[in-house]
Write a structure and sequence with these properties.
By secondary structure, this protein is mostly beta strands. Strands 1-29-28-27-26 form a 5-stranded mixed beta sheet, with no helix packed on it. Strands 8-2-32-31-30 form a 5-stranded mixed beta sheet, covered by helices on one side. A 4-stranded antiparallel beta sheet has the order 3-4-5-9. About 5% of the residues have low confidence.
């Protein structure tokens, strides 16, 4: 069994550019379970990076400061820390980074339990709470508010102020591990939690964290969830091959997507909202047109492709995580075959690969130029996304798909080849 199809020469695939790592202190007792970096996250404005180091600890580091610790010095000067082209392989032991004058503070947070899920949320004051009957609130989130939500193994969700590191809220309704958290990207501070108790719960942090709705529909554990860019649709994935789409205005189930053969553990929408990527233990990443419920692209991690029976069981190619790049053209995946793959939606084979033993999760930076991946030993590794100039056609397609659904595009009086391009049928 191979990691690439026979038509692809592994030596011809580019090696992704490694730019740095964050390591945790090594000690004999750290070898026990609970040390894993189950989640990594970037703040929406690109100001902070956070990851779970294991043993209840979350580390918050200003992203510019983290990049500065990787930067190459030329002639005694530090190069622009925001340019990944100048990053080098220097590690950041224990998460310590080069101090910068006037920079936001770092924080090390003890969450009181193993952290499985994590998400940043930013507030837009003019975005009103959906709970219209309450006129007084204990918390008044301002324009500059940046929050971090952490989901724990005991079912609790803790909300932290990123700038001060203080605990603001403690949400306690789940009865099992909170595997994933995601904020609505519209600044409403609506939070969705996915849990192994088979439920998704919707919380309104502008209403002091009150729970708005419980979403039932998963037959088994829920592993991950993701909002569409306009916050109108939620995708949730879990055990028993489940991929569910929810209407987040009415909190109703839209449809189930069928195509995976094993547990589905990660999902993410493309920046224009037209595509949905899901990662599964069946050794595949599937790219969907979620508005029609159809499969556009299958990205395999095992060749020849396994039969549904083999894919539905234990194998050494479980795909652990998937993330969409901000350019809308690249996808990253982390698999148990010790590789990180960078895919182009225009190709069937990886554009670049990198070695990553024991990878668990991945996420692109806000700009999409850097991928962060967490591992079983609590460390985080960073690579530069393959760089290329997007075509004008792709940029126009993304602009159109941000405002029009697949059905609306199909109704346009345009030639069939252009319609297929706009609906991503030619990927």
């Amino acid at each position: 069994m191979a990691s690439f199809p026979e038509s692809v020469n592994e030596n011809d695939i580019d090696k992704a550019k490694f730019i740095g790592e964050l390591l945790v202190p090594m000690a004999p007792f750290d070898q026990k379970a609970g040390r894993e970096a189950w989640t990594v996250a970037f703040a929406p404005d690109g100001s902070y990076f956070a990851w779970s180091q294991g043993h209840r600890i979350v580390r918050l580091i200003p992203w510019a400061k983290c990049l500065s610790s990787f930067s190459v010095r030329h002639g005694g000067e530090v190069t622009n820390p925001t340019s990944p082209r100048h990053l080098s392989r220097q590690s950041c032991k224990g998460g310590s980074v080069i101090p910068m004058a006037g920079a936001p503070p770092e924080h090390t947070i003890d969450c009181g339990g193993i952290v499985w899920g994590m998400a940043f949320g930013s507030s837009v004051p003019e975005k009103q709470s959906r709970c219209i009957n309450i006129e007084w609130h204990h918390f008044q989130f301002g324009r500059d508010q940046l929050l971090l939500a952490t989901g724990l193994n005991n079912g609790r969700i803790k909300i932290w102020d990123v700038y001060t590191g203080t605990l603001l809220l403690n949400l306690m309704d789940h009865t099992d591990i909170v595997r994933d958290l995601t904020f609505a990207p519209d600044g409403s501070l609506m939070l969705v939690s996915a849990s192994t108790d088979k439920t998704l719960r919707v919380w309104d942090l502008k209403d002091d964290g009150n729970m708005v709705k419980v979403l039932w529909g998963h037959p088994n554990r829920v592993y991950s969830s993701a909002f569409s860019p306009d916050s109108s649709v939620l995708c949730s994935v879990g055990a028993s091959k489940a991929v569910l789409l929810w209407n987040m205005d009415k909190y109703t189930l839209i449809r189930k997507l069928e195509g995976h053969h094993n547990d589905v553990v990660s999902c993410e929408f493309s920046p224009d909202g037209a595509l949905l990527a899901t990662a599964s233990y069946d050794t595949r990443v599937i790219v969907w047109d979620h508005q029609r419920g159809s499969i556009l692209l299958e990205l395999g991690h095992l060749f020849p492709p396994p039969s549904p029976i083999f894919a539905g069981g234990a194998n050494d190619r479980w795909v652990r995580s998937v993330s969409f790049c901000a350019d809308g053209r690249h996808i990253a995946s982390v698999s148990d075959d010790r590789l990180v793959r960078f895919w182009s939606i225009e190709e069937r084979a990886p554009q670049a690969v990198a070695s990553l033993p024991n990878g668990l999760c991945c996420a692109f930076s806000t700009t999409g130029s850097v991928l962060a991946a967490g591992t079983c030993d609590g460390s985080v590794h960073f690579w530069e996304c393959p760089r290329s100039i997007a075509s004008l056609q792709h940029l126009c397609r993304m602009a159109l798909r941000r405002v029009k659904t697949t059905q609306q595009v199909e109704a346009l009086p345009v030639p069939m080849p252009l319609r297929d391009f706009l609906t991503y049928r030619v990927v």
